[in-house]
Amino acid sequence: MPNAIRTSNHWTSAQAYVLATVCLLVGIAFGYLARGTPGTPSSASTPSPSGTAVAPASVASPSPSAGQLAATARNQAAPLLEQLGTSPDDAVLLARIGDVYYDSQQYHDAQQYYERSLRLKPEDADVRADLGTCYWYQGDADTALAQYQKALSYQPHHAGALYNLGMVRWQGKMDSKGAVQAWETLLKVHPDYRDKDKVLDLIAKAKSGASN
User: Fold this and answer.
1) Which H helix or E strand runs over 77?
2) pTM to 2 decimals?
3) Hey, which residues does 6 pair with through a beta bridge?
4) Is 120:130 a contact under the CB 8 Å cutoff?
5) CATH number, domain with residue 168
6) Could you list the residue range(s) of the whole structural domain that residue 96 is in?
7) Residues with pLDDT less than 50, the chain
8) Using one digit for the tens of pLDDT, what is the confidence trace for 163-193?
9) How many structural domains is the chain composed of?
10) Vertex 29, ends 175 and 40: CA angle to 5°?
């Protein structure tokens, strides 16, 4: 399936630089449910519900192994975990740690920190939408959808949650009608959505019965 996108953006410039290097090697353009501005889906790879990503043919560098990704996550998370020792109830810090694990495809670990963050700040729609995507990449479409819906209950026009809601309805539940509804709502509330053409293409594919 086309990427779900990551929504939260809790990075320092140094952390963003290092993770950008990793993302280049992996062949994944993490933006907003990728990185940066909310509502910017990534199109550089095609993860399945199990979290496997297929790098585009144009990426020449070999993808790092699961062990390398896990090691990168540990290295990136270490200073943040040290901070967490003195600030265990910092919702933003917990979300940043979740982002480290998410961007290294350690979705179960990311899930743990996102959930801890949300216990402190349940209304954070960015983090909740990213939590939903963690569940999706672990093969749990129903919980992913529930988290997207909850994110939208706090922020009804949340672009990332609407985009991903459509993706999981389409690819996870074979609900083309529900997917189209989510994407049409996205374009209605965000008429200048920068990936509008991509969303229109997804709508056309879902309406035609295409699966990807």
Assistant:
1) helix 66-86
2) 0.74
3) 33
4) no
5) 1.25.40.10
6) 13-208
7) 1, 11-59
8) 999 999 999 999 999 999 999 999 999 999 9
9) 1
10) 55
